[in-house]
Amino acid sequence: MTAKPQSAPLFLGIDTGGTYTDAVLWSEAGGPSGKVLAKAKALTTRHDLAVGISGAVDAALQKAGTDPAAIKLVSMSTTLATNALVEGQGGRVALVMIGFSEGDLARDGLKAALGTDPVVFCPGGHDVYGNAAKLDLSGLEAALPELGGSVSGFAVCAYFATRNPAHELAARDLIRDITGLPVTASHELSAKLGGPRRALTTLLNARLISMIDRLVAATEGFLAARGIAAPLMVVRGDGALVSAAFARQRPIETILSGPAASLVGARHMTGLDNAMVSDIGGTTTDVAVLDGGRPRLDPEGATVGGFRTMVEAVAMRTFGLGGDSEVALEDGVLSPKILLGPRRLVPLALAGMVHGEAVTSELERQLRAPNPGRMDGRFAVRTGVPERLAAGLTAPEAKLYEVIGAVPLALDRLLTSNAQNATLNRLVSRGLVHISGFTPSDAAHVVGKQANWDAATARLGAELFARKRDGRGQFIAATPEAIAERVLVTLTRWSAEVILETAFAEDGLDGAATVAHALVQRAVDAHPGIARLSVALDRPVIGLGASAPLHYAGLTELVGNGCVVPEDTDVANALGAVVGQVRVSAEARVSQPKEGLFRVASGETVRDFVDEAAAIAAAETDVRAIAAGRARDAGTDSAEIEIASEFRVSTVEGQRMFIEAHVVAVASGRPRIAV
User: Fold this and answer.
1) Nearest CA among 390, 385, 487 for reference residue 442
2) What's the pTM value of the predicted model, to 2 decimals?
3) Which residues are registered as beta bridge partners of 570?
4) Peptide linkage before 593 cis (omega within 30 of 0)
5) pLDDT at 66
6) Do the beta carbons of residue 430 and residue 388 sit within 8 Å?
7) What is the dihedral of CA 73, 77, 81, 84, to 10 degrees?
8) How far apart are the first and last CA of the chain?
9) Are 581 and 671 spatial neighbours (Cβ–Cβ below 8 Å)?
10) 379-430 pLDDT per residue, tens
11) Rounded distance, CA 643 to CA 645, Å?
């Protein structure tokens, strides 16, 4: 292959999703929107992410006939963190709570998020003005030798650490000295009050570190091997770009990275300023609103997998609905409905393509049985993550994990009891094992609407699923094609429901999910009932994702407005990754612990002043410097900084009384590129 000469810098966008890794080569030349020179896809290889990345990027380079050395910037979005939280996956971590009680675990979903992971309580913390209680880390120090061998990282949260982070810093340094493991301190992630929710955010961040670290390392290794000496950027959850090193320390900020990039890409491809954007992937459907050309942000923090974090991100609603969603049957009713998700399965068509006879022979064996089995069409296979991430397994978990290998094993041969099924689900939640089974992607293969994997295996899975019985003892479908069409219709209807639910929620309506379900039900029901109901969105839907042309074909009549599917919809995330900007912020608070004393808390420092104006000026100077430093760390040398201050004051007998000031600096600029 002879490389073509390049007159303008080239940008490489990569999106690592749950099923596919996408790559796009883009140039600023070719008009106001630039030009997509080439795009390609490869399967995401979770056991070694570099394999999927290299497959997609190499294919794009070959299509474009481009010299890799011409690439001056690489930017990446990912749904791995989002998918991990939706599916309840992540490394085992220890939570260190300083100044909190065990009762605080019951707040903001912290106990549910913690699960069986260990927690250590230590005396200490600060008050609202940053005054310290007595710190005692002796209990933590005694527990560290054992914890260091059973967890992948630590999360540290101290009472009012946003007003004085000294105790978090002390605990962080102690943990690093003794264990050498990654530590996330809550003040590094958020300057907002609300200890339990800040602890939740920190816990989730610690769980994601190893996953994002592996992704960045795999990408950097591939770039080095191809001679691409360009900065590597990562899309954050608000659509901004940050350097790979920045993302490694704060992976929680990459939740909704892929969806945020898709919004940037959607706006770039369509030119629409106002739209509902629905991005359907293998694991999730992400729905958001474009207003005035910008995505709406959620100032209260992103909600993913049922957890409300303190990460400012696009106001995105993420649903466990995608092409690889688990297909199940409603229990205990005469006419059961098809249920989808929220768990992602490895599609049978994909498993058949990769493993061949090992999968198809088992499916044929199950079809020969006179009666359908509860675990028909289901397999377990290791994800291939490093063995160190399997630390802390219980004896039953370790025993079952040992039996499962790199080749899919039929569940009806693997499991002998309900207890083992629960054990298997725990291994899945740890990200150690995948379940393979019938999905909408398989249904699309059965009816000839998708052809990239093994259609024959998909059809075997559909035959098995069609043999399931309803409440009357009858087969739920007469043919594999019939059940496949039913699954695809269900996915389109559910897609309409989640789009309408998002619209109702943005309008502040209660019961959004129930209303959306009722309206879609009436829209497709041949007997709409006495009350005539209809709904129409005030803006079109932009459908994104490789399967959007298939699943959104019938969407218009269900949502009452048009549906635009752009030409490059299959790589919207990867394209959005390279057309964004770096944007970071820094915050400081000025309080008055007592009359005449003004305390500035900024970054990791706390200082006192006797003059309000001097304190505000110091706060502004601090946040400007912190924001400039973070912007450089995040990957830009040309940041513009804007500062805004918000004051809380009261008037007593005609006199102005200072209560508190909040000073925020926002730095933004284009990422630096290789020279």
Assistant:
1) 487
2) 0.70
3) none
4) no
5) 83
6) no
7) -130
8) 25
9) yes
10) 999 988 777 778 889 999 999 999 999 999 999 999 988 889 999 999 998 8
11) 7
Contact between 590 and 576 (Cβ < 8 Å): no
Q: Which tokens belong to 488?
A: 């695809």
Q: Sign of torsion, CA 627 629 634 635?
A: positive
CA distances from 647 to 206, 600, 664 (A): 34, 14, 12
CA triple 430-434-437, angle to 5 deg: 140
Q: Give dist(CA 619, CA 612) in Å, integer.
A: 11
Kindly give, in sequence order, each residue whose CB lies less than 8 Å from that of residue 76, ignoring residues fewer than 6 positions away: 13, 14, 15, 16, 215, 219, 232, 233, 234, 235, 244, 577
Q: Average pLDDT of 107-127? A: 90
DSSP string, 34-102: -EEEEEEEEE--TT-HHHHHHHHHHHHHHHHTB-GGGEEEEEEEESHHHHHHHTT----EEEEEES--G
Cα distances from 384 to residues 78, 388, 457, in angstroms, run 19, 11, 23
Q: How far apart are alpha carbons 18 and 82 in whole angstroms?
A: 9
Q: How far apart are CA 474 and CA 376, in angstroms?
A: 17
The residues, ordered by sequence, that sit 6+ positions from 103 with a Cβ below 8 Å of its Cβ are none
For residue 71, give both structure tokens.
Answer: 């690439």
**Amino acid at residue number 95:** L
3-class secondary-structure state, position 368: helix
**Six token digits for residue 615:** 């304190």
Q: How confident is the model at residue 96 (pLDDT cuts 50, 70, 90)?
A: very high
Q: How far apart are CA 294 and CA 441, in angstroms?
A: 32
For residue 12, which of 292, 297, 232, 251 has the smallest C-alpha distance? 232
Task: Provide the 8-state DSSP code for 547.
Answer: T
CA distance linking residue 57 with residue 46, whole number of Å: 17
Rounded to 5°, the CA angle 73-74-77 comes to 140
Q: How far is CA 18 from the centre of its chain?
A: 10
Q: Is the dihedral of CA 100, 81, 313, 221 positive or negative?
A: positive
Reference 158, options 119, 198, 118; nearest CA is 198
HEC profile of 266-281: HHHHHCCCCEEEEEEC
Tell me the per-residue pLDDT of 198-249, one tens digit each, with 9 for 90 and over: 999 899 888 888 778 888 888 888 899 989 999 999 998 888 898 988 888 8
Count Cβ atoms within 10 A of the Cβ of residue 334 and give its class: 0-12 exposed, 13-18 middle, 19 or more buried: exposed
Distances from the Cα of 612 to the Cα of 118, 439, 661, 674, angstroms? 44, 62, 10, 45
Six token digits for residue 389: 């991430």
Contacts of 213 (CB under 8 A, 6+ apart): 248, 251
Asked if 561 contacts 539 with a C-beta cutoff of 8 angstroms, the reply is yes
Task: Determine how many CB atoms are found less than 10 A away from the CB of residue 194.
Answer: 16
Q: How far is CA 191 from CA 43, 46, 131, 299, 662, in A?
A: 38, 34, 17, 13, 10
Q: Which pLDDT value is given to residue 601?
A: 92
Task: Report the distance separating Cα 244 and Cα 229, nearest Å.
Answer: 14
438 three-class SS = coil
105's tokens: 């675990």
3-state helix, strand, coil in the chain (%, to 5): 40, 25, 35
Q: Please, which residues bridge with residue 591 across strands?
A: 599, 660
- What span, in angstroms and rounded, lies between the C-alpha atoms of 521 and 524? 6
State the amino acid at position 483 in one-letter form.
I
Phi, psi (deg, nearest 5) at residue 387: -60, -30
Element (H, E) at 349: helix 348-355
According to DSSP, residue 134 is labeled P
User: What tokens appear for 317 in the block?
Assistant: 């609603």
- Determine whether 390 is exposed, middle or buried from the number of CB atoms within 10 Å of its CB (0-12, 13-18, 19+): middle
For residue 126, the cross-strand partners are 132
Q: CB of 591 within 8 A of CB of 128?
A: yes
